[in-house]
Amino acid sequence: MKVAEIKNEIQKLVETENNPDILNNVYEILEKAQQEARIKEAIIEGALKAEEDIKAGRVYSSEEF
Prior knowledge:
mainly alpha; 2 helices; 77% helix
């Protein structure tokens, strides 16, 4: 199945589901995935900034630290 088809099927299932426990579980799974994506993005951004700082000489020696 393609991504668009999967989303469509999930949407249909969610729309017909009335059990709050199941809906909460789905919500928690999707929210956790979003949080993990934001954390990953922040880590990558920090690493890229650190590489730029190193290349630009914005570092401290062990003695200075």
